[in-house]
Design brief:
Number of domains: 3
InterPro entries: AB_hydrolase_fold, PHA/PHB_synthase, PHB_depo_C, PHB_depoly_PhaZ
Organism: Pseudovibrio exalbescens
Protein name: Esterase
Largest sheet: 9 strands, mixed
Pfam family, one: PHB_depo_C
CATH class of the largest domain: Alpha Beta
Strand order of the largest sheet: 1-2-3-5-4-6-7-13-14
Strand content: 5-15%
Number of helices: 22
Number of strands: 14
Radius of gyration: 26 Å
CATH superfamily of the largest domain: Alpha/Beta hydrolase fold, catalytic domain
């Protein structure tokens, strides 16, 4: 009933919010003689404060419209490139020249811990100039119908693996806070299976890998209360009329209450200062407050099964560091990680994931060579400062970019990747067919010398980095393969590339024939 009471309280306060909003507009009207007086500013400030503390904050926008690349301002476009029930994969596509060398691909796995992925806006913004950035945009569980099924810790790992397979070889992954555990587990499983799609690097930031190290108040609460307490007190049914009606969730407003309760004095002082800034007419300071709290107070619900498993496995049982964590019943063993380079980042004053908790990942990945390891503790920052703020931009982000560029590849050739196709979302395993799929043309790909012989397909007019990736995914790595395509094969290739007709490919075929002839001559 608590969730229903929360909704009822919000509904009851709606007329109050409308009234104070109207009053604020009245006292901010330049035609009102009271607007520029102490009384008018105090009334407007009071009304805005009341409206903001009783408001339900919706999902914010990333709002990243441009970035600087090599000193030039370029446009940035958001696009959903992969989608499943509980997550969209967003790509921040930069309007770069087609002949520019590709930047490393980075998958940022945002926390599923109550806030939306936009909490990492600053994280993305600082990395956009140097990297091709993708981020997980998790769905609010109260907006997912019960008929869509469950989402638990195993499903989370599945999503991470599927996204890495979708993005292809030599992708890099970065996990902030909570997803550090499932991301480390997912990479361990991919390494165990010798997947060519395992990430080239893995960056873990402020994550609870082993909460026995420097336990914080959050960690101690979990161990003190036990999992049964959480089941009884924080799991609730989504009320009508939300799409997820009757789905069991951990409500976002409870998570927010917990976070704010940890530093209640700071939040009270911040709102008092906000009121003073409004009265004094300090618009810049007031706007900074709005920007921060518009993001901080926007929360989402988590599925009950995912939340409870996370609490139990990560914070109570310490399953990963003890070697007891499983993925669909299969043990997760980080000692299999030998190819993916590991970078861990912590904040000196982190009161959520204490210093040493993230660094514990290095102990678990014990077979990883020293040249593929790095650890950094940022002085003077708390949990939020690990992935946002001035010190993140000046100290942490450059280190992440440098680590990624220092370990650009997993050492997997495009041909090897083509020989092992990912398992698609429909669950049908096509990996048995991958050898034939990689030979889509009249001649087999020469696997023995493919590393040296792979051609730059961007030599063809109309083929940019994106088209080259599509051709590679279809098993095309050489100009002679395109030059020898039959009409039937061209039509088949067109289907794989999303509908481009065989007639459209004829230009590429003619160009490839000419280039191949020049090369042979």
């Amino acid at each position: 009933m608590f969730y229903q009471l929360y909704e009822l309280n919000h509904a009851i306060l709606s007329p109050v919010r409308a009234a104070v909003d109207a009053t604020k507009i009245y006292f901010q009207n330049p035609m009102n003689p009271l607007t520029h007086t102490q009384v008018g500013r105090t009334m407007a400030a009071s009304c805005e404060l009341v409206e903001r503390v009783t408001r339900r904050y919706g999902k914010p926008e990333f709002g990243l419209d441009s970035t600087l690349v090599s000193g030039q301002r370029v446009d940035v476009f958001e696009e959903v490139v992969w989608r499943k029930t509980f997550c969209d994969l967003l790509h921040f596509k930069r309007a770069l020249p087609e002949n520019r060398q590709d930047d490393p691909k980075l998958l940022i796995v945002a926390p599923m811990s109550g806030h939306f992925a936009t909490l990492l806006r600053g994280t993305v913004e600082a990395l956009l100039p140097d990297l091709e950035v993708f981020i997980t945009d998790w769905e609010d569980a109260r907006q997912v119908p019960v008929s869509e099924g469950k989402f638990d810790l195993d499903d989370y790992m599945d999503y991470v693996i599927e996204m890495l397979e979708f993005l292809g070889p030599d992708t890099h992954v970065l996990a902030v806070c909570q997803p550090s555990v499932p991301v480390l587990a997912a990479v361990a499983r991919m390494e165990e299976e010798k997947s060519p799609f395992a990430p080239a690097t893995m960056t873990l930031m402020g994550g609870p890998i082993d909460t026995r190290e420097a336990p914080t108040a959050v960690n101690e609460l979990a161990t003190k209360k036990g999992i049964d307490w959480f089941k009884r007190h924080v799991i609730m049914d989504v009320p009508f009329p939300h799409k997820g009606f009757m789905r069991q969730v951990y409500p976002g407003f409870l998570q927010l209450s917990g976070f704010m309760g940890m530093n209640l004095d700071r939040h009270m002082v911040a709102h008092r200062d906000f009121f003073q800034h409004l009265v004094e007419g300090d618009g810049d300071s007031a706007e900074k407050h709005r920007e921060f709290y518009d993001e901080y107070l926007a929360v989402m619900d988590l599925t009950a099964e995912f939340y409870l498993q996370t609490v139990e496995k990560v914070f109570i049982e310490h399953a990963l560091p003890k070697g007891e964590l499983t993925h669909h019943g299969h043990p997760v063993d980080p000692s299999f990680i030998t190819r993916t380079a590991l970078f861990t980042v912590e904040g000196e004053k982190d009161d959520i994931s204490g210093v040493g908790q993230t660094q514990a990942a290095h102990k678990l990945a014990r077979n990883l060579s020293q040249d593929k390891r790095a650890h950094y503790v940022q002085p003077g920052v708390g949990h939020y400062g690990v992935f946002n703020g001035s010190r993140y931009r000046s100290e942490i982000a450059p280190r992440i970019v440098d680590f990624i560029r220092s370990h650009p590849s997993l050492g997997v050739t495009p041909v090897q990747a083509a020989r092992k196709q990912p398992v698609p979302a429909n669950g049908v395993d096509t990996r048995q067919k991958s050898a034939t799929q990689a030979q889509a043309t009249t001649k087999p790909i020469p696997l023995d010398d493919a590393d040296d012989a792979v051609d730059d397909l961007k030599q063809l007019a109309g083929v940019g980095p994106k088209r080259e990736q599509e051709l590679n995914k279809a098993g095309i790595f050489h100009l002679w393969q395109i030059a020898t395509l039959t009409d039937e094969q061209a039509d088949d290739l067109a289907v794989r590339m999303g509908g481009r007709t065989g007639q459209d490919l004829s230009s590429w075929i003619e160009q490839a024939k000419a280039l191949t002839a020049e090369k042979d001559a």
